[in-house]
Amino acid sequence: MNVYEQVIELAKRRGFFWPSYSIYGGESGFYDYGPLGVMLKDNVIKAWKEAYIAEGGIMIDTPVIVPESVFRTSGHIEKFSDLATECPKCHNREKLETVMKAAGSDLVLKSEDEADKFLQDNTVKCVKCGTRITKAFESKQMFKIPEQVSSGNLYLRPETAQGIFVNFKLLNTVFRGKLPMAVAQLGKGFRNEISPRQSLLRMKELNMGEVEVFVIPEKKFWKDLSPGEQIKFAPKNGPEVVSDVKNAFEKGIISSNAMAYFINKTYNILKSIGLHHGNIRFRQQHDDELAHYSVDSWDAEALLDDSWVEVVGIADRNDLKKHQDATGESMSVKVDDRDVIPSIIEPAYGIDRMALSLLMHSFYTRENGFKVLRLPERVAPYHAAILPLVNKDGLDGLARELHEKILELDPYVYFDQSGSIGKRYARQDEIGTPYCITLDQDTIKEKTVTVRERDTTKQARISMDSLVEHGILTNPDIRKFRESLQ
RNA sequence: GCAGGUGUAGUGUAGUCUGGUCUAGCACGAGAGCCUUCCAAGCUUUCAACCCGGGUCCAAAUCCCGGCACCUGCACCA
């Protein structure tokens, strides 16, 4: 079993995530987060959100349902519903445009009916096997809402970004007219994936954390760069390089300050939630894979088993001008007595992909075959578990009391008195709980407990008072213990 | 969406080819209890499954058809 399969098995068994609606046979492209998954996902979101609040970013929350006019302007209506053909013999699928060009026609057909008529009146052949194609179909990547209650058509959003763009003026007023300005939105997006696969990696309903950084077009500047860590870059023209982000910008590998800045920031966020340095890279998209709205894009990719998977996309885009043209609403901001329409650098985070990647990068099997999730403290569902060594001599009662008191400081603390102590350690290791607090005979005598660290399984003795006073993660005794392990 | 493969308790599997003691076995797990003074120990006990729907047959987990889901490859992934 590869790491992916082992993580899927553990995720279902322990309650991180599993396929949705399975008692009705399942529905492909949808996954539920279970009890631990919700906690983990929330922690990922929290890390992302706090990173951007600390950056001076502001947030907004807009509807998932969006009128067609918005997506007409953004280009999604046109670019997201392709007319396509399928060869009746070899089942090769192509865009209608491609097979028509091959047949020597530059006509642009707008509907299925038009396309069908054309294919029946003309001889268009499969580019692979030469069989005649007579039918076209529309492949829609946005979900359209069938029953309209408004005057126009409504869609489920495929990205949260437009909700920010259409509110640009209001947001910038709240931001007191300044540039640059970063706005973040967390929410669900919906994409009609033709063949969803790989659990959380390709869902029809996904959690996105998108940030729109509005910058002055000529400069595309956010903040001065500091060197930062060595990062692996795969530029579109040229070989892979390992460099810090400042150097990469100065050498021209990355085209703008803001792009460079947010690549580095993204790297730091991914690392902070538990992705491994060596298994992260930034790959620049080739011109033919760029989205319709973007002129340059760097993907943060995570190495999962043997393939690189896009986890974050950082795009250079320019939507404000389009909305200004479409609505007549000014999208310009006064900068040094000039009116400028900002450019946008957009780091778009796939929250679900981040969650799966961090589980896979954290997954580890001990020599004895037991599984451990080496999750960073900040994303682990539980910070600690309280365990009475045995259930007699009043230890269990004492443990419950301690648990109650710690809960007042930190609700993310688990209690378990069932089974042998070894089994309980193993249970916690498997869900990534960083610390186990065990009460033993000495607890009764000296009011001390042992703290066991997950990755080393080493223990230290600390006082109960310390736990009751400081909780777990900010406990000076536990911090000291942790430092002694490194 | 196409082609191929797979589908048995919460998980991993035996059984399917060759239909019949399968009243579906095993292990892990989970619950209750006992025991237990630090890394999935042991004992007692309980829980829990043939993906869904048709068909063939005296008889279907097993054979056939359809659907659904998953896996792999191709295509798609703004």
- Quick one: CATH class of the largest domain? Alpha Beta
> What percent strand?
25-35%
Distance between the termini: 31 Å
For the largest beta-sheet, the strand count, sense and barrel status come to:
9 strands, mixed
CATH architectural arrangement of the largest domain: 2-Layer Sandwich
Count of domains: 3
User: On the 0-100 scale, what is the average pLDDT?
Assistant: 92
Strand line-up of the largest beta sheet: 3-10-11-19-16-15-14-12-13
Total strand segments: 26
Features:
alpha+beta; 3 domains; 26 strands; 9-stranded mixed β-sheet; RNA-binding; Rossmann fold
Quick rundown:
With 486 residues, the protein is an alpha+beta fold.
Overall description:
The protein is an alpha+beta fold. The chain has three domains: about 5-75 and about 155-360, BirA Bifunctional Protein, domain 2, CATH 3.30.930.10; about 80-140, no CATH class; about 380-485, Rossmann fold, CATH 3.40.50. The chain is about 35% helix and about 25% strand. The protein contains 17 helices and 26 strands. The chain has a nine-stranded mixed beta sheet with strand order 3-10-11-19-16-15-14-12-13. It has a five-stranded mixed beta sheet with strand order 23-22-24-25-26, sandwiched between helices. β17 and β18 form a beta hairpin. The chain is globular and about 90 Å long. The protein binds one RNA strand of 78 nucleotides through α1, β5 and α14.
Lay out the secondary structure.
Layout lengths: L2 H12 L2 E3 L11 E3 L1 H19 L4 E2 L5 E3 H7 L1 H4 L1 E6 L6 E3 H7 L9 H10 L14 E5 L3 E2 L8 E3 L4 H5 L2 H7 L6 E10 L14 E11 L15 E4 L6 E3 L1 H6 L6 H16 L7 E5 L9 E11 L2 E11 L2 H8 L5 E3 L2 E3 L2 E8 H12 E3 L5 E3 L10 E5 L6 H15 L3 E3 L5 H10 L4 E5 L1 H6 L1 E6 L5 E5 H7 L5 H10 L1
Parallel strand pairs: 3-10, 12-14, 22-23, 22-24
Antiparallel strand pairs: 1-2, 4-9, 5-6, 5-7, 8-9, 10-11, 11-19, 12-13, 14-15, 15-16, 16-19, 17-18, 20-21, 24-25, 25-26
Helix pairs in contact: 2-12, 13-16
The chain binds one RNA strand of 78 nucleotides through helix 1, strand 5 and helix 14.
